[in-house]
UniProtKB/TrEMBL annotation:
It comes from Aeromicrobium marinum DSM 15272. Binds 1 zinc ion per subunit. The keyword Hydrolase applies. SUPFAM superfamilies: Hedgehog/DD-peptidase (SSF55166). The active site is at residue 189. This is D-alanyl-D-alanine dipeptidase. Catalyzes hydrolysis of the D-alanyl-D-alanine dipeptide. One of its GO terms (molecular function) is zinc ion binding. Coiled coil: none annotated.
Length: 220
């Protein structure tokens, strides 16, 4: 884990945003996707992402093998929800190890949840998703979506070795389609992919991120 660049790393947080002003687009209106019943987010735009992200996801639906669908779990997230998840996970980590410094805590937390001030879901730039069959049954990708590093013993990391060969193949299928469509993965979470955020800018050596925080009820 030490060589992974995390969302709390200054290499990421110091990247600037030049907002391009694209609207949020509801993926439910585009067709071609499956939608999870997990309901991890009750926010008004949970199934929405920026137009540039939606276009790329739509392209990715054409790249997955026949009989496989992209299953959307969560797109845009309200800032207050991001803050609540971040604080709750920090509290969990602090209980497990009261000696952590604030800096260590922030870094450890960002393996699983982004610091609120740079959160890609709040910008409509990230999507949490998995694969399903045509009947809408989720495929095995090795862990539940949103399994923490602790509860999954690290199997949530994209490259984890402690998953079955079938789960590995399914992760490769997901990565082939999303990568070819222009999204980047956050390596501590196999289900988290983004375009236009700071992590994408760092991964692709783009000069800046394209999307800052966006209000679900108002255009960017
Ligand atoms: C908690 C998980 N669903 C997630 O979205 N994590 C990333 C890193 C985030 O908060 O952006
Ligand atoms: Zn995510």
């Amino acid at each position: 884990m030490t060589d992974l660049v995390l969302l709390a790393d200054p290499q990421i947080t110091e990247i600037g945003v030049e907002e391009v002003g694209e609207p949020l687009v509801d993926l439910r209106e585009l067709g071609g996707f499956a939608f999870s019943h997990l309901k991890v987010n009750e926010g008004p735009a949970w199934s929405s992402v920026r137009r540039g992200v939606a276009d790329r996801l739509l392209h990715a639906t054409e790249l997955v093998p026949a009989g496989v669908r992209l299953m959307i779990v969560e797109g845009h997230r309200e800032p207050a929800v991001q803050r609540r998840h971040f604080d709750a996970y920090c509290a969990e980590l602090r209980t497990a190890d009261p000696d952590l410094t604030d800096l260590q805590l922030r870094r450890l937390a960002s393996r699983y949840i982004s610091p609120p001030e740079v959160a890609p879901h709040v910008a409509g730039a990230a999507i949490d998703l998995t694969l399903a069959d045509v009947a809408g049954r989720p495929l095995d990708l090795g862990t539940a979506v949103n399994a923490t590093p602790e509860e999954s013993e690290g199997a949530c990391y994209f490259d984890a070795a402690n998953i079955s060969s079938q789960a590995r193949e399914h992760r490769a299928t997901l990565a082939d389609a999303l990568g070819a469509a222009g999204l980047v993965n956050y390596p501590t979470e196999w289900w988290h992919w983004s375009f236009g955020d700071r992590y994408w800018a760092w991964s692709t050596r783009a000069r800046c991120a394209l999307y800052g925080p966006v209000d679900a009820d108002r255009p960017a």
